[in-house]
Structures are given as C-alpha cells and as structure tokens.
TrEMBL record:
One of its GO terms (biological process) is mitotic DNA damage checkpoint signaling. It comes from Nymphaea colorata. It comes from the Eukaryota. This is C2H2-type domain-containing protein. PANTHER family: ZINC FINGER PROTEIN 830. It is found in: Nucleus. InterPro entries: ZNF830-like (IPR040050), Znf_C2H2_sf (IPR036236), Znf_C2H2_type (IPR013087). Keywords: Coiled coil, Metal-binding, Nucleus, Zinc, Zinc-finger. GO terms for molecular function: nucleic acid binding; zinc ion binding. The keyword Coiled coil applies. One of its GO terms (cellular component) is spliceosomal complex. The lineage of its organism: Eukaryota, Viridiplantae, Streptophyta, Embryophyta, Tracheophyta.
Length: 33
C-alpha cells in the first residue's frame, strides 16, 4: 500500500484504485508488460 492507503502492484509499481480493481489490473496491458 502507498501513502494514500491504496493497494500498489509490486510487479509494475502502479497504484490500484481499490481491492475490487485487482482482477482488472492483472489482465491489463500495463501489468502484462
């Protein structure tokens, strides 16, 4: 989690808006790269 208490993807260092956004993030292009 970052200073804004948002979950952060350790793979691409991108903050994810919410826990429910994880599945969408994991299949996103940013995460795949």
């Amino acid at each position: 989690y970052n200073e804004l208490d948002q979950p952060v993807c350790k793979v691409c260092n991108v903050p994810v808006k919410s826990e429910s956004a994880w599945p969408a993030h994991q299949i996103s292009r940013k995460h795949q790269e």
